[in-house]
Amino acid sequence: MSDKIYKIINARLLLNHQIVDNEYLWFQHGKIIHPQNLFFDEHRDADEIIDAQGLLVAPGLIDTQINGAYSIDFADNEGPVEKIKEDINTVAKGLLQYGCTAFCPTVVSSEPAVYEKVLPLLNHRKGSAQGGAEILGAHIEGPFISIEKKGAHKQQVFRNAKNGIADFDAAYGSELKKGNKAVSIITMAPEIEGVTEAIPDLVARGITVSMGHTDCRIAEAELAVTKGATSITHLFNAMQAFHHRDPGLVGVLGAADLPLPEEAQRHPEPSSTSPCRNKPDPRPFYGIICDGVHVHPNSVRIAYYSHPRGAVLVTDALSAMGLPKGIYTLGGRDVEVDASGACYIKGTRTLAGSTVTIDECVRNFQRFTNCTVVEALEAATLHPARLLGIDDRKGTLNAGADADFVFLDDSTGEVYVKQVYVAGEKVDLQK
């Protein structure tokens, strides 16, 4: 890698929850650096100046739940390994045009043989302008989930965990023992036998435990949080509808008496609605699909106003992302995309995933909630990074973070991607 030092000028930077004018951004060796060390230790100035021409510079966007794109499904294990690798690369490269510089490829409920073949190919991998967005480890969605809230998942592969962590290892294979190098997030239903009891063992491996595809009651959800669950998968979808006497999983957003976290990592920062305003929020993060189909804009607004620092924008995009309406495959099942971009199990009205892109999610979130540009961007940068415990290197423009960032035109009040850098390398968005 080149030893060159780069300096971005004429930029407005997203720093410390605000947009800062007339600041410079320095980077070298794929990392954001502090210029003071250059001046006093190395007596160097920048080798190359990059003029941002007044654009907003923000951290690269992060998608923690994406099933595939461009007719490629991450749960597809048919064909030779080399072909699957090529397909993964195709998606990783394609995501860059939307400002997505890091992602968790998501695998829906599958047989053990699928996980054994696919998960080794989805291990953590650094991003590059040529190779595509960084892979942050897989998001495994199921098979420890509820039959009642199965969505598009194949019920015949569902399991329980009556033998605890041993059942998780049996389901996912050897990759699970590598922790978050291989598996970053597991979505599970806390009411399934043995699941909640296994949460501490999964957390000890560095894996983020997310509650989803669940019929759980509020008490079961809160117990899972006390055991270490720190996320909700696609809030409002594949869970009980809110009921005033037992609000189910959705009700965790209103929890006021969960034990305060002992450490900040993997927990939301405090907000005006937090149980304690100067300590990390004990309520979990929540993924939310802002395509206007999966969740009504009013519901997005309610979630945001109850727990603003917990919002994590996800696409839950599937193989049809980037393609026209038609019939595609997800986890071995036929799904159909209509003219609005909504995707259903073929012949039903059961939603199977979205075709929205992460930059669209940012624009929609801002529009639905009337939040600031900063808040909308942080829901796709800082919040997912904190969710995964990687906010020391992702989701910020602080010194020491990876030089993944996007140049955004926000002149209309909404953000549009103009340039993308991954690990300090400029992406050719024409490809």
From TrEMBL:
Binding site residues for Zn(2+): 141, 213, 234
Active-site feature positions: 316
Start and end residues of each Amidohydrolase-related domain: 57-426
Cofactor: a divalent metal cation
InterPro entries: Amidohydro-rel, GlcNAc_6-P_deAcase, Metal-dep_hydrolase_composite, Metal_Hydrolase
Keyword Hydrolase: yes
Keyword field: Carbohydrate metabolism, Hydrolase, Metal-binding
Single annotated GO MF: metal ion binding
Catalytic activity: N-acetyl-D-glucosamine 6-phosphate + H2O = D-glucosamine 6-phosphate + acetate
Ligand binding (substrate): 152, 237-238, 245, 294, 351-353
Note describing how the cofactor binds: Binds 1 divalent metal cation per subunit.
Enzyme Commission code: 3.5.1.25
One record GO biological process: N-acetylglucosamine catabolic process
Keyword field contains Metal-binding: yes
Record family assignment: Belongs to the metallo-dependent hydrolases superfamily. NagA family.
Protein name (Swiss-Prot/TrEMBL): N-acetylglucosamine-6-phosphate deacetylase
Organism for this UniProt entry: Absidia glauca
